[in-house]
Amino acid sequence: MSPPSNLGNFKDGSESAAGENYADINWDNYELGFYLVPTDYMYVMKCAKGDKFSQGSIVPYGNIEISPSAGILNYGQGLFEGLKAYRTEDGRILLFRPDENAQRMKRGADRLCMPSPSNDQFVNAVKQIVLANKRWVPPSGKGSLYVRPLLMGTGASLGVGPAPEYTFLIYCSPVGSYHKGALNFKVEDKLYRAISGSGGTGGIKSVTNYAPVYTAMTEAKANGFSDVLFLDSATGKYIEEATACNVFVVKDNSIFTPEIDGTILPGITRKSIIEIAIDLGYQVMERAVSVEEMLGADEMFCTGTAMVVNSVASVTYKETRVDYKTGPEALSAKLRATLVGIQTGCVEDKKSWTVLVD
Ligand code: COI
């Protein structure tokens, strides 16, 4: 999706009362969505097969040149990550658990036979690119700067095999909400997101996990649904995740979410929400969740970096539609408020999840 034309003039800057420089977006009057707003810079670091990443640099944001026979283009040798930088009320910029993204990228890189940046290289690169694009971090309460690290085989290779060269690239975009309002899910019972069990790639952020959901997603959206919920490919009886988020169901005082078994993406928001819910006194169970259990739940919500925490208003499975509790009284509202509070520096960060960019 492209940004609306009334977003502002990206070339000139403006200064806030606090003396901060901002890109000339109409931050007060325009509600950002989840679409690309190009920023000033991106980060690029390259390494040859068999080597280690060593030195990256900040370069102007723009198109990249790539061989037609690059590993990423031909054989899908690529991963992405997603994390957000938030501006606090007192003007600081915070990242949320960037080391978790670094570790997840490393696990994915091992699976796809790619070298990966070290934890420190990853986190430092993220800090550098956020600082370089500081004027694009929205004012407190107006959104966040979405940071998108990519790791891809960019070397040319005609035969099937690991590419001879790799690129770690990070670009950013200011964003607002991914979805507006509570979601209406359609359960997909013919197409699957990932191979069940530990042998597939559902548990890593491989670029190849996303386009295969487009057919189901496009059809569901054409029929008025907001998103698709996928089932396990082995039996079709258990819920897995939606196109770009993990899912949870709530029954009485218990919360259930599919366990991380190689198929489910180990979401950083998922992991954080589990901890927050336990701290708030809820029982959280990570285990297989059947379709019947979901249909009998009181509440359902989903989590993801882009999505944060979003309540699910309804699920439609074949001919059955079930409505769930939503609104300010829903548990998901409480969990979201706590998480966003920590991310934006309004709630005390007792777990040292946030990292200051300075
Ligand atoms: C994220 O939440 O960062 C994701 O990876 C979802 C993305 C595909 C929009």
Explain the overall architecture.
By secondary structure, the protein is of the alpha+beta class. It folds into two domains: 27-173, D-amino Acid Aminotransferase, Chain A, domain 1; 181-342, Alpha-Beta Barrel (D-amino Acid Aminotransferase, Chain A, domain 2). It is built from seven helices and 19 strands. It has helices spanning 71-75, 98-111, 119-132, 214-222, 268-279, 291-295, 331-343, and strands spanning 8-15, 21-25, 41-48, 56-60, 78-80, 83-87, 93-96, 144-153, 165-175, 183-188, 227-231, 239-242, 245-251, 254-257, 283-286, 299-304, 308-317, 320-323, 354-356. It is globular. The chain starts with 7 loop residues before the first strand and ends with a strand. Residues 82, 244, 304-307 line the site of 2-OXO-4-methylpentanoic acid (COI). 2-OXO-4-methylpentanoic acid (COI) is lined by residues 82, 244, 304-307.
Short description:
With 358 residues, the protein is an alpha+beta fold. It is built from 7 helices and 19 strands.
CATH top-level class of the largest domain: Alpha Beta
* CATH-defined architecture of the largest domain: Alpha-Beta Barrel
Radius of gyration: 20 Å
Task: Quickly count the helices.
Answer: 7
User: Any idea of the CATH topology of the largest domain?
Assistant: D-amino Acid Aminotransferase, Chain A, domain 2
GO molecular function, one term: L-leucine-2-oxoglutarate transaminase activity
Family: Belongs to the class-IV pyridoxal-phosphate-dependent aminotransferase family.
Keywords: Amino-acid biosynthesis, Aminotransferase, Branched-chain amino acid biosynthesis, Pyridoxal phosphate, Transferase
Catalytic activity: L-isoleucine + 2-oxoglutarate = (S)-3-methyl-2-oxopentanoate + L-glutamate; L-leucine + 2-oxoglutarate = 4-methyl-2-oxopentanoate + L-glutamate; L-valine + 2-oxoglutarate = 3-methyl-2-oxobutanoate + L-glutamate
